[in-house]
């Protein structure tokens, strides 16, 4: 039964987030406070258990990502290029570690980076600029409005790219 209460708090928090009527930071903190208070009141855990369950590595990672995104949003420069650059040594290392042909991995990185950027308004520099320009018009592109178009479009594009990858590997091109 405890999981139902926690799930309800989680869903309500996200539902309010998607309305974009209240600042995300306030909603997120309120949701976290709801989980802590609900957990204490309904006896999900005691304070020692709660504190020992905190994964500070994950919190540090998320905090670092938030700081990077916040900084990049303010400067107006964000796209899939930094992600691609960060993944190059990972893919290279996989090839060296396992001694496998890496052509398909390079194609997957290239296609995923380009096509994945369509799904979010901050997924590429062009997206950020388009959304910024739209804010000065009578019909600005809000985050949810972008997702309604971007996510299905990304799903179609990635499906086509996956088919391309599959056929390329089947005929020995990759």
Question: Could you please describe the fold and organization of this structure?
Answer:
The structure is a single chain. The chain is mainly α and 174 residues long. The protein has 2 domains: 2-54; 76-170, no CATH class. It has helices at 2-19, 24-41, 47-52, 56-75, 80-98, 103-116, 125-134, 143-170. Helix 1 packs antiparallel against helix 2. The mean pLDDT is 81.
Layout: helices, strands, pairs:
Elements: H1 2-19, H2 24-41, H3 47-52, H4 56-75, H5 80-98, H6 103-116, H7 125-134, H8 143-170
Helix pairs in contact: 1-2, 5-6, 6-8
Main structural class: mainly alpha
Radius of gyration: 21 Å
Total of helices: 8
Regarding quaternary structure, what we see is single chain
| Overall form | extended
Mean pLDDT: 81
Order of helices and strands: HHHHHHHH
Descriptors for this entry?
single chain; 174 residues; 2 domains; extended
Explain briefly what this protein structure is.
This protein is 76% helix and 0% strand. The chain is mainly alpha-helical.
């Amino acid at each position: 039964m405890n999981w139902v209460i926690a799930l309800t708090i989680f869903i309500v928090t996200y539902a309010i987030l998607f309305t974009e009527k209240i600042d995300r930071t306030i909603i997120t903190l309120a949701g976290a406070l709801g989980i802590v208070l609900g957990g204490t009141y309904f006896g999900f855990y005691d304070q020692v258990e709660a504190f020992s369950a905190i994964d500070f590595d994950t919190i540090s990672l998320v905090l670092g990502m938030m700081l990077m995104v916040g900084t990049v949003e303010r400067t107006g420069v964000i796209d899939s290029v930094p992600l691609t650059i960060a993944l190059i040594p990972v893919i290279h290392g996989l090839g060296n570690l396992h001694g496998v042909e890496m052509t398909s991995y390079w194609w997957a990185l290239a296609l995923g980076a380009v096509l994945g950027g369509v799904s979010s308004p901050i997924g590429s520099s062009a997206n950020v600029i388009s959304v910024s320009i739209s804010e000065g018009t009578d019909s600005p592109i809000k985050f949810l409005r972008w997702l309604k178009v971007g996510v299905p479009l990304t799903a179609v594009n990635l499906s086509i790219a996956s088919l391309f990858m599959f056929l390329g590997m089947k005929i020995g091109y990759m």
